């Protein structure tokens, strides 16, 4: 059954951490909506490999419109977590126990939303201390699935496992 997946991202997203999960999700029949501050904005990846147009503004969507959430890494999550609208949006998915897929620096949004206390998670090396300080049970593993809801991974090298576990949660 096709699910609606919200993707929150902005410029400086890690190219493959958007493109590979997006490809896997679309091939499985799921519908993605790219959400940025401004609808129609062209979002550029930090390596210049990805250029994608935002489908919607954060002001025009609500978590109840979606079944799951994807947070690609790179510098994008750090930029977005300074915006309370994105923090609230992400927090709603965690509070409602909807599937959330966050890779690399993606968990930074979950840290700011204060949703990781007591949760199992992983992330990029530079945010490991932040994850622990946010109360997460940090695991240095390619993919961590917590409470059949949250999927986290560390780097682009972990994308096969990240995509596999993310797709499992949407079955």
UniProtKB/TrEMBL annotation:
Family that this chain belongs to: Belongs to the peptidase C56 family.
Protein's name according to its UniProt entry: Type 1 glutamine amidotransferase domain-containing protein
Pfam family, one: DJ-1_PfpI
InterPro entries associated with the record: C56_PfpI-like, Class_I_gatase-like, DJ-1/PfpI
Keywords: Glutamine amidotransferase
Organism placement in taxonomy: Bacteria, Bacillati, Bacillota, Bacilli, Bacillales
DJ-1/PfpI domain sequence ranges: 3-168
Organism (species): Scopulibacillus cellulosilyticus
PANTHER family named among the record's database cross-references: DJ-1 PROTEIN, DJ-1_THIJ_PFPI FAMILY PROTEIN
């Amino acid at each position: 059954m096709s699910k609606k997946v919200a993707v929150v991202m902005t410029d400086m997203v890690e190219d493959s951490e958007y493109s590979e999960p997006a490809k896997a999700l679309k091939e499985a029949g799921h519908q993605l909506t790219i959400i940025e501050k401004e609808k129609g904005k062209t979002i550029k990846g930090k390596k210049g490999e990805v250029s994608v147009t935002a489908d919607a503004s954060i002001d025009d969507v609500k978590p109840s419109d979606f079944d799951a959430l994807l947070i690609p890494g790179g510098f994008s999550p750090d930029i977005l977590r300074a915006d309370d609208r994105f923090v609230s949006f992400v927090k709603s998915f965690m509070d409602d126990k909807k599937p959330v897929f966050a890779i690399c620096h993606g968990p930074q949004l979950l840290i700011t939303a204060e949703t990781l206390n007591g949760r199992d998670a992983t992330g990029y090396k530079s945010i490991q201390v932040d994850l622990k300080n946010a109360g997460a049970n940090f695991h240095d593993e390619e993919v961590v699935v917590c409470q059949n809801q949250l999927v986290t991974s560390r780097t682009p090298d972990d994308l096969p496992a990240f995509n596999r576990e993310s797709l499992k949660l949407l079955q």
